[in-house]
Amino acid sequence: MTLADFVKNLQGVNDSKDFAPEYLEAIYNAIHTREIIMPEEHDNQAGFDHAWKALLQKAEHAGELLICHSNAYDSYMFSATWRPVVATLSYIFASATDDTVFKRVITGLDQCARISARYGLNETLDQIILCLAKICTLAGDDLPSTKLNIDVIIEGNTVTVSELAVRFGRDFTGQLATVILFSLCEGKEQEIRTGWKHVHSSQHEPI
Length: 207
Fold this sequence. Notes:
2 domains
């Protein structure tokens, strides 16, 4: 689209009046030099270039980079970055199928939990526990259905097998998340706050 076409398309849209020509020219030049990338295009080279340009522009106003040989700011740095980190790790955990990926994600969650406990970041630790509780599928607000419960005899004892138990038994990711959930809680009992209700739900959900 040329500048003339751009100006023509915006005729009369300023409360039935035209915008100042220099104003429209400035907007046109800004759009022309900085391509607008739609969200669905963010997975290609154009999307990468757009993100890189945006990062460089932010860096221009970020101030001088200071290299600090101290851990005095570790808590502040982690507080500012943990949300996307935990969200990403949780998403990968729930969708991964490769053992190597699982190992790295588990290590990442464990390290985040250790840092959270070390600096007393209770909200972070509670959020990690909540994410794992959701993945393990045992904790939830809705009571599990009992319509398909079946009583079986095992060594003379009657055992009720529920739909939840069968589903959980077939869910490797859920089983792994449960193990990691309780492992992360060990030794961090004093730092956990609201996360306890999710641990309690996972432990006592009727199966």
